[in-house]
Automatic annotation (TrEMBL):
This is Serine hydrolase FSH. Keywords: Hydrolase. Residues 22-266 form the Serine hydrolase domain. GO terms for biological process: secondary metabolite biosynthetic process. The keyword Hydrolase applies. The keyword Transmembrane does not apply. GO terms for molecular function: hydrolase activity. GO terms for cellular component: cytoplasm; nucleus. InterPro entries: AB_hydrolase_fold (IPR029058), FSH-like_dom (IPR005645), LovG (IPR050593). It comes from the Eukaryota. Belongs to the LovG family.
Amino acid sequence: MPPAPTPESKIPHTVPSSAPLPRILCLHGGGVNATIFEAQSRSLIRHLQHSFRLVWVDAPFFCDPHSDVIHVYGSYAPFRRWLRWLPEHPEIDAESCIEEIGYAIRTGMEDDDRAGATGEWVGLMGFSQGAKLSASLLLEQQAREDKAKREGSADIGVGPIGVSGLNWRFGVLLAGRAPLSNLNPAVMKSSALVSAKDISEGFQFCSEVDDEAKLREKTIHVHGMADPGLHLHRKLLDDYCEEGTTTLVEWEGAHRIPLKSKDVNKVMEAIYDVAEKMDVKVTRTV
């Protein structure tokens, strides 16, 4: 029997100019940097670049490289982090940490504007600690929206990034784990959130996550079935996200970003579905 024909790729041969495309802010994990995250995401980029402009931002704090990347990316220093996860990471107060995170992201966004990009900021995509931060930024936006609604105001104010008019529509959370970080302690008081100054490893979870800490924005959760942190990824999905707002993609991998077509295609289908539901036009490549 002859072998089955290879399905023809739906990826267009020509990559469009990204300047006018809707933009996704890409946040790397802890112990890596934006350059490494971009390299690790190469299979996703082949698809995403036809619908979105991807903007890769470096975290503000330096740290040792993550053990998972030393072999391949050991020469890609400096390595960075958004939040503390080890006791040896220098202590910092929550206000300063949030300010530094906001400044780093705002600088990356403004640099992209200066590079000629004009598309609307529509989504966040993060891996590991970057996924935690992406979900936390969505929750912070939601908290300001809820506060404005309670006060009968149409103005939700400006969040920690310091850019007015942002409206994140969805988040792509690659191996994102609970708990979420409190990026606006003046508005959010939930004990289910970890302070930006604290180490989240060993966090004492509440028996129940209250509504203030529960994310209702659209999120896509990508879980590797061999990831040692899978129980915390599932906790983020099940406990910290409102039922009916999430899309789950599971694949047979460890703590890394999918590379093989059969895994990447599932992630892309989920992203396209959610983006279209949020009125973002996409060019489907799968």
